[in-house]
Write a structure and sequence with these properties.
The protein is of the alpha+beta class. The chain has 3 domains: 82 residues, no CATH class; 165 residues, 2-Layer Sandwich (Bacterial polysaccharide co-polymerase-like); 119 residues. Helices cover 72% and strands 8% of the residues. It has 13 helices and 4 strands. A 4-stranded antiparallel beta sheet has the order 2-3-1-4. Strand 2 and strand 3 form a beta hairpin.
Length: 378
C-alpha cells in the first residue's frame, strides 16, 4: 500500500515537473488553442429550443371501459398499459414527421435526399422526456430561428392531439361494435330460448312446475283418501251384507275406477296432462329452458345501457392530451454551450500535451540506449 502511494506521488511529481519544464511552450500553445477554440465556438450556428409540456389524461382509458372492467370478470379489450409511453413513441412516428415536413419543408432545410436519413436527423432534434407524473415535455431544436422552433414544437403537439383523437375514436368505435355484436347475439339466443320454452310448455302443458306438481300431488292425495274411505266402507258392508250385494259391487267398481284414475295420474300422460312419473324429468328440462331465458334477459339488461353509453362515448370522443405550457420563442439560444466547448477543447489539449512531452522526455532520457540498439542492428 505504501509502495503504491509512493509510486503515485512520484508519478504526479514527474508530471508537475514536466509541466513546469515546458511551461512556456504550454502557455503559448494553450493560448493559441484557446483562441482557436473560442473562434470555432462563436462561429458555430445558434440553435433555439421550442419547449412544450402537456399532460396525458387518465380519462383517455375510457370511463366506459373502466365500468365494464369492474362489471365483468374478464378483460373486454386489451388497452395500452402505459399511455405516456405510447405518446412518447408516437411523437417520433413517421406520420408526425411527414406532417412536419409537408408544412415546413424540413427535408429541404436539412438538405438530405435520403428519406430514412432525414427521419434520423429530424428525430435527433426532437427531445422527449417523460416526467413520471403523467406529463411529457417536448423540446424541438431549430437553427437560427427561435420563432420557428416554438412554432414547430406547437405543431407537433397539434399533430399528436389529432392522432390521439383518432385512436380514441377507433377504440370507442371498436368497443361499440363489440357491444353491438354481443347485443345482437344475445337477442338471437334469447329469441331462440324463448321459442324452445314456449314449445315445451305447449307440448307438455307445463307452465308453473311447482304449482302444477302441487296440484297433481293434491289430486292423488284426495283420490287416495277417498279410495281408502270407500275400501273401509266396503269392508263394513261385506261384514253385514252378502258378497253379491249390489251396494258392495258398486263400491268395488268405484274403488277400481279410482285406482285406475290414480294410476293414470301417476303413470299416463297425454296432450292435456303430464304424469307424476314424468314430472321430475320434465321439470328439469323446463328449469333448464327457463334458466336460459332468465340468464339471457339479465345479460340483455346489462348490455343495453352499456351499448348506449358506448354510442355516447363514440359521439363525444376527445383527445387524451391537455396542454400545460405552450412553446414560445425564447430569447436565448439552447446550444451550442460555448464555454463548455472552449474548456473541453483546452482540457483535451492539455492531456495531449502531457502525453507528448512525456514521450519526448522519455526519448531524451533513453536516446543513448536507442542509438546503441540501432548500431547493433546495423
Amino acid at each position: 500500500m505504501q509502495n503504491t502511494d509512493i509510486t503515485s506521488k512520484s508519478s504526479m511529481y514527474r508530471l508537475m515537473s514536466l509541466v513546469w519544464q515546458y511551461r512556456k511552450v504550454l502557455l503559448v500553445t494553450l493560448t493559441f488553442v484557446f483562441i482557436i477554440s473560442t473562434i470555432i465556438a462563436f462561429l458555430l450556428p445558434k440553435w433555439y429550443r421550442g419547449s412544450i409540456t402537456f399532460i396525458v389524461n387518465e380519462q383517455g382509458k375510457g370511463k366506459l371501459i373502466s365500468e365494464l372492467a369492474s362489471a365483468v370478470p374478464f378483460n373486454l379489450m386489451q388497452m395500452e398499459s402505459n399511455r405516456v409511453d405510447l405518446y412518447v413513441n408516437l411523437i417520433k412516428s413517421r406520420r408526425v414527421l411527414d406532417s412536419l415536413d409537408s408544412l415546413y419543408h424540413l427535408q429541404q432545410y436539412y438538405d438530405i435526399k435520403d428519406r430514412q436519413q432525414f427521419y434520423k436527423e429530424l428525430n435527433s432534434d426532437i427531445d422527449v422526456r417523460d416526467n413520471n407524473d403523467n406529463t411529457i415535455t417536448l423540446n424541438f431544436y431549430y437553427k437560427e430561428d427561435a420563432k420557428k422552433a416554438a412554432e414547430i414544437a406547437n405543431k407537433i403537439f397539434v399533430e399528436l392531439s389529432d392522432l390521439s383523437l383518432e385512436l380514441n375514436s377507433e377504440r370507442n368505435r371498436s368497443l361499440r361494435m363489440y357491444l353491438q355484436n354481443s347485443y345482437d347475439v344475445t337477442i338471437s339466443r334469447l329469441r331462440e330460448s324463448e321459442k324452445k320454452l314456449t314449445n315445451f310448455q305447449a307440448n307438455n302443458q307445463i307452465y308453473d312446475v311447482e304449482a302444477q306438481l302441487k296440484m297433481i300431488i293434491d289430486k292423488i292425495t284426495e283420490l287416495e283418501i277417498e279410495k281408502i274411505q270407500n275400501e273401509i266402507q266396503m269392508l263394513v258392508l261385506k261384514s253385514t251384507l252378502a258378497q253379491n250385494n249390489q251396494e258392495v259391487k258398486a263400491l268395488e267398481t268405484k274403488i277400481s275406477i279410482m285406482q285406475q284414475k290414480i294410476n293414470e295420474i301417476k303413470y299416463t300422460s297425454n296432450k292435456n296432462n303430464i304424469s307424476l312419473s314424468q314430472m321430475p324429468e320434465k321439470a328439469i328440462e323446463y328449469m333448464n329452458l327457463f334458466r336460459d331465458v332468465k340468464v339471457l334477459n339479465k345479460l340483455l339488461e346489462f348490455l343495453i345501457p352499456q351499448l348506449e353509453n358506448a354510442r355516447l362515448e363514440e359521439i363525444k370522443t376527445s383527445s387524451d392530451l391537455q396542454i400545460i405550457d405552450n412553446a414560445i420563442a425564447e430569447d436565448y439560444k439552447a446550444k451550442p454551450k460555448r464555454i463548455s466547448i472552449i474548456f473541453t477543447i483546452c482540457f483535451l489539449y492539455f492531456i495531449v500535451f502531457l502525453l507528448v512531452v512525456s514521450m519526448y522526455n522519455y526519448y531524451l532520457r533513453n536516446k543513448n540506449i536507442f542509438s546503441q540498439i540501432k548500431e547493433q542492428d546495423a
